[in-house]
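Journal club side-thread
Mid-discussion, someone asked how the predicted structure for our own chain would compare to the paper's figures. Pasting it here so we can look after the session.
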Amino acid sequence: MVPVTRTTITRAQVALVAVSTLLQVGVFAVGGDRLPARSTARQAFSTVELALVAVLVVVTVGIVRWSAGEGERVAAVARLVLASLVLCAVGDVINRNYPGHAYQWDDVIEHSYLITSILAFAPGYALVVMANRRATCHVVGSRTAAVTVGLGAAAGLIGFATTFDPDVAPGASALMAGYGVVLAVLAASTWWLGRTYGWRPSAPAVAGCLLAVVADWLIATFWIFGDGYPTIEHVNWIIYYASLALIGRLPFVVADGVEG
């Protein structure tokens, strides 16, 4: 089996983010807004996006292999990150909307597949919270972590309440409320990383978590409840894909682990 080195992994992550970003910018520049939903061109483009996610999954498998020699904490974090990425990849397949679904939940939300994909993304990002906890449990106590989670959950519910639409189906509203809680807790859990490893050393993983939250805020604001599609899809993907790669740096943060 070919040995996996940290340098090789880093180069692969950087290259993938660069290719992903250039792809979105290039397609949008030459007429991304003219790729109609459910058209052959749009589906072909979506397949390329999914291929990039698949390659990132392969790279993260490499991180798990690399972590085997770095101690149990690093290995556990790497496995959680990989599991999270796989679930997010499932969410990406749903969001590509190959069947052409619309208004599945109610008569309000046209891009209903975005709500359905929460069933994959919510547990996916919950696993990142678990990875952040596993990475920091030797410094951040259980009580402090519980308070952080509680504050994050409260912030998520307040955020959902400010955008609540009574015309949206109860099931869709429940999914969005729960997802808002998960994302807010994900953002709050970055404090554990800064506290444990220092803000500068943990910056890649912290940025990845926060960018994931930003990406979903863009979806909610300009895609689910706005009219920004398809432009917002290109902007969102640039941020989202970078967030996945940056979250993938968490095992390296833990391995380097000088406690802050």
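Post-session note: The chain has one domain: 6-256.
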